[in-house]
Design a protein that fits this description.
The chain is of the alpha+beta class. It folds into 4 domains: about 130 residues, 2-Layer Sandwich (Beta-Lactamase); about 100 residues, PAS domain (Beta-Lactamase); about 110 residues, Beta-Lactamase, CATH 3.30.450; about 200 residues, Histidine kinase-like ATPase, C-terminal domain (Heat Shock Protein 90). About 35% of the residues lie in helices and about 30% in strands. Strands 12, 13, 14, 15, 16, 17 and 18 form a 7-stranded antiparallel β-sheet that branches. A 6-stranded antiparallel β-sheet has the order 2-1-6-5-4-3, with helices on both faces. The longest helix is centred in the last third of the chain and has 38 residues.
Length: about 600
C-alpha cells in the first residue's frame, strides 16, 4: 500500500530494525559484504556468511551470546588491544552517532589477522529510540598492504635520492635547481638555501659547456658521463661527470634529473699514474725478490738485480721465457724453458700459483723457488705480456725440515718422559713404607724431573751449560749459601738426554744430603766439581760429589730406591759408571760417562 492514511485501521509500519530482523539468512547472504545486526544491548541477532568468513567463526546469537562483535579479538590499527565494550559498535549503540570508514584489526581464533573497514549505523524506531545497529564491514588488508608497499617504495625512492652516495639534482625546464641531495651539497660545500632555487649556470665554470648540456637535454638527448667543471663554495674547481636525461610531459621538457659524479680525484690520479709509472721501474729494481717481465711472445723486457742474483747470471733482454739458466722440477727432472710456469701462464693466458721449481746457476748451485707468473692485459683485455716474481724458498724449506725434526724429537721425548714417570712410580711404590710416604717420594722426583724440563725448555731443548744445570737443581734445595756449597768445573754443554739424567741424579743426592747428610746441619759443606777430558771416542765427563762436616755416615743395610734410580740414570741411560761411597766423614759419589759436547 502506498497510502496508509486510507486504511480503516491505522497500521504501524515495521521499523528498520524489525524489518532486518525478519529477513532470513539467505537474504542477508545476498548482501555483497559482511553484515551483522545487534539489538540495543549489543547482543548479536543476525549475521551473514561473509561475516562468518571474516571472523573465522560463527558467533552465538541472542542474550548471553556474543556481544557487539563476532570476532575472536579486536585491535586498533596500531596493534593496541580493543575491548568489545569499547569497539565501534558499542560506541554507536551508546551515542547513536554513525561510524564511517573506521579501521579495526580482526583476529581469528587461529591467530590470523585482517584489517577491516567498518561502517555502522544506529537503527531507531518511529520515536527515535535506538533499537539496534547494523555493521557493514569489509576486508581491506590487501589495500593496506598495497598502501604500505607504496609508502615503503616512496620512502625508498626518497632515501635513494637524499642519501645516494653520488650527487643528484633536479633542474626545471627554466634551468632553476629544484632539488639537490646531500652528496651534491657536500661535494660543492653549499647549504640547501645557497644552492636550491638558483640557476644552474651560476655554478658551471664553462658557459659553453652548460649551454650545450641544456640544449642536448632540451632536445631529448641523454648525457652519459658528460665532463664539466663546477665551482665550489670555497672557490675550488671540481671536475665532474654528468649523467642526465629529461622528463617530458605533452612533448615539452618538464625537468631534468642529473647524476653528478666527482672525478676530481680521478683527474689528479691520472697525472699521478703517469708519475708513478716513472717510479715503477725503480720500485721493481729495488725489490728483494727476483722480478722480470716479458712481452706477449715471452721475450724478456725487464729484470731487476734480485733476478740476476737468483739466477747467478745476467740475462739478456729478448731471452725467452725465464731469467734462470736451467730449471728443474722438484723431483730433480729437467724442466724445459718453454714449459716453465711463465711459458704456461702466457700460452694459457692465466696466472700460475701453487707450484715450485729449482733454478740451477752456471756455477752448479741450485735454488728452490716459487714462481708467480701473471699475465698483463691492456684496457681492452688483450694480452700484452706478463710479470713474474721468483721467491727464494730455501729458508722456508729448511724451516719445514727443522719443524719436522722438532716434532719427531718431541714425540721421542714424550715417550721417554712417560717411560721415566712410569718407572719412577713403580719403583717408588715398591719401596714406600706407606701410601703417604710413596706419594711424597714420587712427588719430589716428579718435581726434579719438572725442573729439568723447565731448564731444557728455556734452552729450547738444545745444549745446556753444566754449571747452569747444577745451580738450577741444587739452589732451590739448599738455597744460596756460597760459604757452604762449591759448584765448579770445566765449561761444557750437555745434551738433553744427559741433562735429564744428571738432574734426577743430582736431585737424589741433594735430597739425601739435606735430610740425612752434611747439609742437614749448619757445619756441613758440599763440593760438586767436574772435569772434562778428551778421549778417542768423545769427551769423558767426571763429576765428584763430596759432603763434609755432617753427621757420621754409616753404610746402609740395603740399597735404597734412590741409589737404584741414580745407578739406572748413569749406568743404563748414559752408559757410564756410578760409584757411591758412604765414607764416615761424608757421602762421596763419582760419576763418569762419555759425552759429545763443546766448550762454549
Amino acid at each position: 500500500m502506498s497510502n496508509i492514511e486510507e486504511l480503516a485501521v491505522e497500521v504501524c509500519a515495521p521499523s528498520e530494525y524489525q524489518s532486518l530482523l525478519t529477513l532470513g539468512a539467505s537474504a542477508l547472504d545476498a548482501i555483497p559484504g559482511a553484515v551483522y545486526l545487534c539489538d540495543h544491548e549489543g547482543w548479536l541477532v543476525r549475521y551473514n556468511s561473509e561475516a562468518v568468513e571474516l571472523w573465522g567463526r560463527a558467533p552465538i546469537i541472542g542474550k548471553n551470546g556474543d556481544r557487539f562483535c563476532g570476532s575472536h579479538r579486536l585491535f586498533l590499527p596500531d596493534g593496541t588491544p580493543l575491548a568489545f565494550e569499547d569497539c565501534p559498535m558499542a560506541s554507536v549503540l551508546i551515542t547513536g552517532a554513525a561510524t564511517r570508514n573506521q579501521e579495526v584489526i580482526i583476529e581469528r581464533s587461529d591467530g590470523t589477522r585482517l584489517m577491516a573497514l567498518v561502517n555502522i549505523r544506529a537503527l531507531r524506531d518511529r520515536c527515535g529510540v535506538i533499537e539496534g545497529a547494523i555493521n557493514c564491514f569489509q576486508d581491506v588488508s590487501a589495500r593496506h598492504a598495497m598502501a604500505e608497499e607504496l609508502r615503503r617504495k616512496s620512502a625508498d625512492l626518497e632515501d635513494f635520492f637524499e642519501n645516494s652516495a653520488v650527487g643528484l639534482h633536479i633542474v626545471s625546464n627554466a634551468g632553476i635547481i629544484q632539488r639537490a641531495n646531500k652528496a651534491e651539497l657536500n661535494m660543492l660545500g653549499y647549504t640547501a638555501d645557497e644552492y636550491i632555487g638558483r640557476h644552474i649556470t651560476e655554478f658551471h665554470v664553462d658557459e659553453p659547456v652548460i649551454g650545450d648540456i641544456l640544449n642536448k637535454l632540451g632536445s631529448g638527448e641523454s648525457l652519459d658521463s658528460y665532463p664539466a667543471r663546477l665551482r665550489a663554495k670555497d672557490g675550488t674547481i671540481r671536475h665532474v661527470a654528468i649523467t642526465s636525461n629529461g622528463r617530458f610531459e605533452d612533448g615539452k621538457l618538464f625537468h631534468t634529473r642529473c647524476f653528478t659524479i666527482d672525478v676530481t680525484l680521478a683527474q689528479q690520479m691520472e697525472s699521478q699514474i703517469r708519475e708513478s709509472e716513472r717510479h715503477m721501474r725503480n720500485l721493481l729494481e729495488a725489490l728483494p725478490a727476483a722480478v722480470y717481465t716479458t712481452d706477449a711472445q715471452g721475450r724478456i723486457t725487464f729484470f731487476n738485480r734480485a733476478a740476476v742474483e737468483l739466477s747467478g747470471r745476467t740475462p739478456q733482454l729478448g731471452d725467452m721465457w725465464c731469467v734462470t739458466w736451467k730449471i728443474f722440477n722438484t723431483d730433480g727432472s729437467a724442466l724445459p724453458h718453454d714449459q716453465c710456469p711463465m711459458a704456461v701462464a702466457l700460452k694459457e693466458n692465466r696466472p700460475i700459483r701453487g707450484v715450485e721449481a729449482i733454478a740451477e746457476r752456471p756455477d752448479g748451485t741450485r735454488v728452490p723457488f716459487a714462481p708467480y707468473p701473471t699475465p698483463l692485459h691492456d684496457a681492452d683485455g688483450n694480452l700484452v705480456g706478463a710479470i713474474n716474481m721468483l721467491v727464494d724458498i730455501t729458508e722456508r724449506n729448511q724451516a719445514q725440515n727443522r719443524q719436522k725434526t722438532l716434532i719427531d724429537e718431541l714425540n721421542h721425548r714424550v715417550k721417554n718422559t712417560l717411560a721415566t714417570v712410569q718407572s719412577l712410580a713403580a719403583q717408588t711404590a715398591r719401596n714406600a713404607e706407606d701410601a703417604n710416604d710413596g706419594y711424597r717420594r714420587f712427588e719430589a722426583r716428579l718435581l726434579a724431573l719438572s725442573r729439568a724440563h723447565d731448564l731444557l725448555t728455556r734452552r729450547h731443548w738444545g745444549h745446556t751449560p753444566l754449571g747452569s744445570l747444577a745451580h738450577e737443581v741444587l739452589m732451590p734445595i739448599f738455597g744460596q749459601e756460597p760459604s757452604r756449597i762449591v759448584v765448579e768445573g770445566d765449561p761444557v754443554d750437555v745434551g738433553t738426554r744427559v741433562a735429564l739424567n744428571l738432574t734426577m741424579t743430582l736431585n737424589e743426592l741433594a735430597i739425601n744430603a739435606l735430610k740425612y747428610g752434611a747439609m742437614s746441619v749448619e757445619t756441613g759443606t758440599l763440593s760438586v766439581k767436574w772435569v772434562v777430558q778428551p778421549q778417542s771416542d768423545g769427551m769423558l765427563l767426571t763429576l765428584d760429589w763430596r759432603e763434609q762436616g755432617g753427621p757420621r755416615v754409616a753404610q746402609p743395610k740395603r740399597e735404597g730406591l734412590g741409589s737404584r734410580l741414580m745407578k739406572r740414570c748413569i749406568e743404563r741411560d748414559l752408559g757410564g759408571t756410578f760409584d757411591l761411597t758412604f765414607d764416615p766423614k761424608g757421602v762421596c759419589c763419582r760419576i763418569s760417562f762419555l759425552i759429545q759436547a763443546s766448550s762454549p
